[in-house]
Amino acid sequence: QVQLVESGGGLVQTGGSLRLSCAASISTFSSRAMAWFRQAPGKERQFVATIKWNEGTTYSDSVKGRFTISRDNAKKMVYLQMDSLKPEDTAVYYCATNDYFYSEYKLSERQYKYWGQGTQVTVSS
Question: Contact, 19 vs 79, CB < 8 A?
Fold first, then answer.
């Protein structure tokens, strides 16, 4: 059974930083891509960042240069370091993975099968 648990959300001022964590209870963690998505009120869930099995990363244009995704295979953790936060970054952030092993980048939420419960990030202006 796959379980993903996010933590680290909160309230921060514009320009501040937060670090989100996702703990994965999943076999073969190191061979799976992990991703972060976010959903703002009244909007569709959107891709934020993903890290492949070989630690290759890619980001949405809206967060590139400000956010950094990383993973610790020994701890089965994935992180999202968020710097220079803006009010438009306010959303519920979700950790996700799928059953593709050693796969290329997947940026659509439809390509992810397992999701965490989400953690709220609020950036005040």
Answer: yes
